[in-house]
Write a structure and sequence with these properties.
Number of helices: 9
Radius of gyration: 18 Å
Helix content: 40-55%
Shape: elongated
Strand order of the largest sheet: 2-1-3-4-5
CATH class of the largest domain: Alpha Beta
CATH superfamily of the largest domain: Response regulator
CATH architecture of the largest domain: 3-Layer(aba) Sandwich
Structural class: alpha/beta
Length: about 240
Amino acid sequence: MAMPSAKILVVDDDPAIRNLIYRFLGQKNYQVEAADNGRTALELFSKFNPDLVILDVNLPDALGYNLCEEMQLSTDVFVLMLTSRTDTEDKATGFEKGADDYLTKPFDLRELEFRVGAILKRQRTVSPSANKQPLVFGHLSIDPERREIKVDGDLVPFTALEFDLLNFLARHPGQALSRSTLISEVWDYSEVVGDQRVVDVHIGQIRKKIEQDAARPSLIKTVRGFGYRFEAPSPAEKES
């Protein structure tokens, strides 16, 4: 039996962009609805129950970040933010509110297709049982079965992508992983597309949640000019 096509809600007040995405994704056999403002978006969201929302940051009656947060209060919907801004702080705000990925305008439709497909694949992927064993690193514990992160025994909220990124790094301790490798393995793009700095933004958010001092990280080390490496604490560090 064929799997039903994913449902995508497109929210953008620019009719040219909104209609372009609507038609393009419809041609890719997704079920698509569209809204041009926040109020309509929330109404459609409750009726349509989408798997993914493609959400513009700036709407005439709402801020996309706030809509993202509100939508995820009731469901675990994936959110792909659209923005004309390129600064890192802007992207960090979106990720703090629960966004799974970012696409900067103007964008290529092929890149949009890659990102949508990669996001939706995460909800259908079943991890091998060997990768479902909990990991414990001192004050940090990662439970892939329950998809939970605890720091000092306290549950810490993580977005789906933040969890996948930390889990992947932690399962390759001591290994320097390039940004392109992380994009390929975690975002699951078949090829590297877009700005690889999205990895840096997510790492920054994760560090704030798991490091005792995010400015001097001990668990996720930067490999300058290359990527990142997860450093498991030494036995002495675990006991401290």
